[in-house]
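Support reply, case 0932

Customer input (verbatim):
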Amino acid sequence: MSKTDDKPVIIAKRKNIQIIFDYCLDQKIEFKVSPRTISNDEWELELSIDSIKMAIALGMFVRENKLDMHGMGEFSKPKPVNNGKKIEEKEKTIAPAPSLTDLMSGLVTEEPANALNLDLNANNN
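Our regenerated output:
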């Protein structure tokens, strides 16, 4: 990994730098720190990763601590493989919405004779 583009860069705020320092010192990872020109509170930490195990451990550390990782290029999602099978798309038909008169005609109206009769003078008072 000779180019600087090949090195992962962590962008961290000042409060998170100590966590990254401790991780790099524990794992014996060489790093370079430089301030970001965009913000006074953010720093770029360029790490020298030598093996795949170190890269996996670093990825787990970054994800666990919710840090921003840049460098190493952008990764794209793999395209799904069809294996020669055609995917059939279902045709979607949208039924027209019923009109207000259709909705109102479907309502059941109660006759006054069938309605609940509440007699408040049940005791003949």
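We compared this against your earlier run and they match. Two observations from our side: The radius of gyration is 34 Å. The first helix runs from residue 17 to 27. Please reopen the case if you see a mismatch on your end.
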